Amino acid sequence: MKLAVFDFDSTLMDGETIDFLAAPLGLEKAVAEITERAMAGELDFFKSLVARAALIEGLEEEKVNAICADLPMMPGAFETVKGLKERGYTVICFSGGFRNATAPAAKALGLDADFSNFLHSEGGKLTGQVGGEMMYSDAKGDMIIRIQKLLGVNREDTLVVGDGANDLSMFTHADTRVAFCAKPILKEAATHCVDTKDLREILSIVDSL
């Protein structure tokens, strides 16, 4: 058995979920600036996530789900997931973003599982609070170790793909590490870099191993 773990925002999905959610409130620029600094490793991920979630307080949950159901997938996402599964991989998504987005995407893409955070709501509106499995900078590393043990997969048979600083912790536990249109901090830890927005490049990498 082999394991492939993808980041979601700006990796499987073309953009940042939180930016899409901030747009109706006119806060896209403010949120994007925090996201940019967090992905570059300049801000603590937990603090940046809490700060960004607080900015979208009051957004209707119905609106959140509608936006998340219509997010643009990265070019080649469907073909790459299908191709990896045909090559014997279990394909999973880890996201420091939100289940509202990863759940419908996982279903559409045919992922085996998705792990992400939850936006808290009350009375049909976001409260500005967030919690879940991927709140901290080392969360992805912690989760990948547990999944490897559960599936009986070693690091030699593990592929990870991401773009930002919060993907570093999972890069530590895989021999094939793809930095996809990534920040310099992640490229330094990668075995392969893809600088074009086409996930199908990953199938070429896998076939060359």
Describe this structure in words.
This protein is of the alpha/beta class. The protein contains 10 helices and 7 strands. It has helices at residues 17-22, 28-39, 45-55, 61-68, 77-86, 99-109, 139-151, 168-171, 184-187, 201-208; strands spanning 2-7, 89-98, 113-122, 125-132, 158-162, 176-180, 192-194. Helix 2 runs antiparallel to helix 3 and helix 4 runs parallel beside helix 6.
Feature tags:
10 helices; globular; seven-stranded mixed sheet; 42% helix; alpha/beta; Rossmann fold; 209 residues
Secondary structure: elements and pairs:
Layout: E1 2-7, H1 17-22, H2 28-39, H3 45-55, H4 61-68, H5 77-86, E2 89-98, H6 99-109, E3 113-122, E4 125-132, H7 139-151, E5 158-162, H8 168-171, E6 176-180, H9 184-187, E7 192-194, H10 201-208
Parallel strand pairs: 1-2, 1-5, 2-3, 5-6, 6-7
Antiparallel strand pairs: 3-4
Helix pairs in contact: 2-3, 4-6
Instruction: Describe the sheet with the most strands.
Output: 7 strands, mixed
The CATH architecture? 3-Layer(aba) Sandwich
CA distance, first residue to last residue:
15 Å
CATH level 1 class label: Alpha Beta
The helix-and-strand class reads: alpha/beta
Shape: globular
Instruction: Tell how many strands the DSSP assignment holds.
Output: 7
Cα radius of gyration in angstroms = 16 Å
Widest β-sheet, arrangement of strands: 4-3-2-1-5-6-7
The H-level CATH homologous superfamily, spelled out, is: HAD superfamily/HAD-like
Regions with little confidence, pLDDT below 50 for 5+ residues: none
Q: Per DSSP, what share of the residues sits in E-state strands of 2 or more residues?
A: 15-25%
Number of helices: 10
Would you give the CATH topology? Rossmann fold
Helix content: 40-55%
Order of helices and strands: EHHHHHEHEEHEHEHEH
Mean of residue pLDDT? 95
List the domain count as a whole number: 1
